[in-house]
Amino acid sequence: MIGLIGPISGSIGSTGSPRGVLLAAGYLAAAIVLGLALPRGAAAQALSHAQLQALNDKLSTEFGYYLGAEEERHADGKSYIDLSQRFEYMPSRGRGGGVVVHAKCAGAEYVPNKGEMTKGIATGKIKYLLFTYELRHGEWTEIGKPQWQTQSLGRAAAQRMTEAAERDEAAEAAARERELRGTPIATPAAAHAPASAPPVSAGNPPAPPHQ
């Protein structure tokens, strides 16, 4: 189930990706804030819960296509965008007073390490995927095709993003190992250990129910 779109920001729930959604060293988050911090508009306040949910459903279906395409590129060893499932929503008034909503998500570009399913090496580029919908006669209609926009953060940022991704993946691997080590393993001795209390005799009557 996906999260509900908010007037300014929102997110789409997990899609079962093995990579998950990891933000690298704050660079991606900073880019989103700088590029998309816009004031709330009156159009956002006019949207009902049902309208927001309908837009959420439309967006999640189309976003899933792009997310799957990037995951396929990753699996094929091609450069890919590690799309965040957090969106920024920018409502406004269109022609004739209709409501137009721009939904934008961002992701860092990586080049996979050959033969591995780790994130890989960051290129230092942030790419934004922009969706635009308009509310017409109570129905959401997409305006044009989604557009890609690119922002380059440079080599130093790319190096730090790569290092941050490696730290995150190492921490996740360590956490999984600790979890496995912490799982109790049944032994033959444990199976024959004496019970902590003797069993209730079959001759004893059952306890009366609570009044």
Outline:
The chain has about 210 residues and is of the alpha+beta class.
Individual helix count = 5
Largest sheet: 7 strands, antiparallel
Write down the overall mean pLDDT.
74
**Regions with little confidence, pLDDT below 50 for 5+ residues:** 1-8, 13-42, 194-211
| End-to-end C-alpha gap | 44 Å
Order of helices and strands: EHHHEEEEEEHH
Coarse shape: elongated
What does this structure look like?
The structure is a single chain. By secondary structure, this protein is an alpha+beta fold.
What brief labels describe this structure?
single chain; 7 strands; disordered N terminus; 211 residues; disordered C terminus; 5 helices; alpha+beta; elongated
Sequence-ordered SSE layout with sheet pairings:
Layout: E1 9-11, H1 27-36, H2 42-46, H3 49-75, E2 80-83, E3 86-93, E4 99-111, E5 121-136, E6 139-142, E7 147-152, H4 155-181, H5 188-191
Antiparallel strand pairs: 1-3, 2-4, 3-4, 4-5, 5-6, 5-7
